[in-house]
Design a protein that fits this description.
Blueprint: H1 3-15, H2 37-41, E1 53-57, E2 66-78, E3 81-90, E4 95-101, H3 108-121, E5 128-131, H4 137-144, E6 150-153, H5 158-170, E7 198-199, E8 208-215, E9 232-235, E10 247-254, H6 258-266, E11 270-276, E12 281-286, E13 290-296, H7 299-314, E14 318-324, E15 333-338
Length: 345
């Protein structure tokens, strides 16, 4: 039995899966720590009067064919108009492209040009390009329609989200024309979220599951969680600056249909899990804005859900899902996930 499974089994025994809640009908691991000294600190700069483009490479990680893209305005005014940027990276963060666009050239044609130029210079060409902004869906979709890669609306843009957060902290506030009131707000309040989770297909409903946790060290180099000891799934990058003694919160699903559920999840862009404490529900989120109702929570489960959310907040949204046929088996599916902050959406 793997180290990961030993820990999970111990935690399941402690939490008592039998007392858990039933479902109601209703990669290689990469670090996001330091790109390089210059990228980590990104010195204060003033936005240029004319468009500019930069390409940075991280020689310490291998490139991937899964790219991540954002095209959006930033909290900076240039000549009285918003600064627009195109940001492109890959899932490992092996490179970063940043190109500014004049506000009168924010269109699919210009975006396609930026993407095609990035592909031309790339050491690893993309097969998938993910983007998370629903507000820019049409323009990005049109821009990527003639590019030789699959466009995927998805919140699984972990490297990109971390980069944008870095720029929000270290770059834009030091730019001439920065406007704090234009910066993205905090997390969206649950009472403003009018989305209604839909039912999972009958054949995919779990039978039991529990809130558990694993040491963060298990996800670091030399830890017990590797692609060798689970079936399908994905491991998002882990920030090396997170405390080594921390615990990552997670959800374990126990179901006789574990392979079917894991395969179905592998076909989605699994974004994460949230406990809506006001509505007393556990919700699974996929793609840009899809939601699935996993369970309703009683008082005890609501308290566990509160601890789950607090643990996520302490690690910047990091959490995991494990899908198993029983508590003695290796996972048929395992995902290490990190929420895209609502303030970025």
């Amino acid at each position: 039995m793997s180290n990961m499974l030993l820990v999970l089994c111990c935690l399941l025994a402690t939490n008592g899966v039998a007392n858990g809640f039933a479902v109601y009908p209703t990669s290689k691991q990469h670090s996001t720590a330091a790109f390089s000294t210059s990228l980590r600190s990104e010195p204060p700069v003033s936005p240029p009067a004319s468009p500019s483009s930069s390409l940075e490479r991280n020689p310490d990680v291998d490139g991937t064919d899964e790219w991540e893209l954002d095209c959006y305005s930033r909290p900076v005014l240039v000549g009285g108009k918003k600064l627009w940027e195109v940001l492109i990276t890959d899932s490992s963060g092996s490179f970063r492209v940043c190109e500014t666009l004049p506000s009168n050239k924010v269109n699919s044609k210009e975006l396609r040009r930026v993407v095609e130029e990035a592909i031309e210079k790339a050491e690893v060409k993309p097969s998938i390009i993910r983007f998370f902004r629903g507000a820019m869906f049409n323009m990005i979709n049109i821009a990527l329609s003639d590019v030789d890669a699959v466009a995927k609306p998805s919140r699984c843009t972990f490297s990109l989200a971390g980069w944008i957060e870095e720029r929000n902290r270290n770059v834009y506030p030091n730019m001439e024309g920065y406007r704090k009131n234009m910066a993205a707000g905090g997390p969206r309040a649950s009472f403003l979220d009018v989305r209604t989770p839909v039912k999972l297909p009958d054949a995919l409903r779990g039978e039991k599951y529990a809130f558990v946790s694993l040491p963060l060290a298990e996800f670091r180099e030399g830890g017990g969680v590797t692609k060798d000891n689970f079936g399908v799934g994905k491991l998002c990058p882990v920030d090396l600056e997170l405390p080594a003694d921390a615990f990552v919160q997670g959800v374990v699903v126990i179901t006789s249909r574990a392979k079917s559920l894991a395969s179905w999840l592998a076909g989605t862009e699994l974004a994460g899990f949230k406990c809506d404490l006001r509505k007393r529900t556990l919700v699974m989120e996929t793609d840009i804005d899809n939601q699935y109702l996993m369970a309703k929570l009683n008082d005890v489960q609501r308290a566990e859900g509160m601890a789950f959310e607090e643990g996520k907040d302490m690690l910047g949204g990091l959490h995991f899902l494990s899908v198993q046929c029983d508590d003695d088996s290796d996972p048929d599916g395992f995902w290490l996930l990190k929420e895209v902050p609502d303030g970025l959406l």
